[in-house]
Give the backbone structure.
Amino acid sequence: MSTRHYTVARHTFAVTLPEGETGIALPSYEPFAVSCATDKLLFSLTVDDDFYPTERGETIGEFDCGAADFGVYRLSDGTYQILVSPPGGQYCGLLQASPDFSQATIATRGEDAMRTFAVNNALMLVYAFSAAEMGTLLIHASVIKNNHRGYLFLGKSGTGKSTHSRLWLKHIANSELLNDDNPVITVGKDGATVYGSPWSGKTPCYKNDSAPIGAFVRIKQEPENHILREGALQAFAVLLPSMSTMKWDKRVYDGICNSVALLIETTPLYTLGCRPDQEAAEVCHAAVTNKEHRT
């Protein structure tokens, strides 16, 4: 077996593949590779296609992250079994993880592309749930880094998060894309930081970089461009559904809720009603950097 180590948002984890494995490709992880292990790993994931559980857990539920579907089962001792599938497709990975997700094994099946898909999505899931009590959040958002601060654009699929990021890249000076789908946030009493990650959806943006968070912006398609800062309750209601979580797991859910509550104490959230045009980017930029155009 061959073990590789990666550090994402200050957390180091290990991935163990069969010796000589060439079918599973993880190029998006290379910017996060580290040469030596730390004594404190967030988790370890082993790929073992010969693995098969001795019993099947009780059905818990299903959820999706937009790019993958997950069927969740749990044994009496709290061990999780999760089937990983492409949207609407047959499963390509069987993940079994300890109750705290610190130890996990996945058996993959299908062609190499599907095996890679299974491992990549399993790593994203295990990362999110193993770090849930550590002030660490995996969020569905597109992130622009502008003048050393990160601005996260939120919204349901199809609302224009990536489009708005592209508008900043084109029209707002000193802007760069940090991540286009699943960045990582760490939060503490002194503020919050957003990090690039190996998970960036359809856009190949895998930057080992970070920035203090300037603001969150919920994107809504509307005929006129306008922006409003939301209060704490609305901010919580907007942010929580954007996080990777499992409501049926008290440890995971409580950890994420506590982190979101701390997040809204230090970081503003705005709602931007907008068209996909230059003015929308300018209105947004002016508001989140404390200039004009607020309503």
About this structure: Residues 106 and 259 are 29 Å apart (CA to CA). The chain has a mean pLDDT of 93. Residues 2-131 form one domain.
